[in-house]
Design brief:
Layout: E1 4-6, E2 23-27, H1 32-40, E3 44-45, E4 54-56, E5 61-64, H2 73-80, E6 85-88, H3 92-101, H4 114-125, E7 129-136, E8 139-149, E9 152-160, H5 165-179, E10 184-188, H6 192-195, E11 200-202, H7 204-211
Parallel strand pairs: 1-2, 9-10
Antiparallel strand pairs: 2-4, 3-4, 5-10, 5-11, 6-7, 7-8, 8-9
Helix pairs in contact: 3-4
Length: 212
């Protein structure tokens, strides 16, 4: 299938037109309106700093249902002891900056460019982007950020400076979202780390239906 080239007009092709690897379109911008339209349509940006924006909608989609969250015995002990201080939205710029610096296996660079950082900080200021944070002895040591729209949270990236910090923040965040009535967490693409916490694949068409 062709990759659609976006212009300045605000639109996306149907997600069913995506390539086998999930690539749907290229170009456009990171305006707030386009980003919100993308998430509401089951699409997210993901590209290297020296590329034009690339827009993805993979099939299947990797998601977590809050009721299916898995907490290991070791993590349950850490949570019981309140090893970390869990906070929400107290250090969004620091969280996204640390995510941009996080080293990931098989990925020598980062897709969290200055343009991405600027766009998501604006989304945060408008109340769409959230950070979930793990603190230890007054220091930010782990966390994640993403977009919350209605009853769906779209996770973007995580980081951890000490063992189990990001996992701790994620578990606390999922429990918080469940209390708020959130029914779906989009993890986008497979990671072993999130699978261990209960995330699983669902068909894209089923995922899109859950966004409505």
């Amino acid at each position: 299938m062709p990759v659609y080239l976006l212009d300045d007009s605000l639109w996306f092709p149907l997600v069913a037109e995506a390539n086998d690897d999930g690539l749907l379109a290229a170009g456009g911008d990171l305006s707030i309106e386009r980003l919100l339209l993308a998430y509401r349509s089951g699409i997210f940006p993901w590209y290297n700093e020296d590329e034009i924006p690339l827009w993805w909608s993979p099939d299947p989609r990797f998601v977590l249902f809050p009721d299916e969250l898995k907490v290991s015995k070791s993590m349950a002990q850490l949570l019981k002891r309140n090893v970390f201080d869990f906070r929400i939205n107290t250090a969004f710029p620091e969280v996204i900056f640390n995510c941009s610096r996080a080293k990931r296996k098989g990925d020598p660079g980062t897709w969290i460019s200055n343009d991405i950082i600027g766009a998501y900080q604006e989304l945060h200021q408008l109340g769409y982007a959230y950070s979930a944070e793990a603190w230890y002895s007054g220091q930010l040591v782990g966390g994640l950020y993403g977009i919350l729209l209605g009853s769906v949270f779209f996770g973007e990236s995580m980081f951890s400076l000490v063992s189990n910090a990001s996992k701790y923040a994620f578990i606390c965040w999922v429990r918080h979202l469940k209390e708020r009535g959130v029914r779906l967490i989009d993890c986008q693409v497979y990671t072993e780390h999130l699978e261990s916490l209960g995330a699983r694949m669902v068909p894209r068409n089923a995922f899109i239906e859950m966004l409505v």
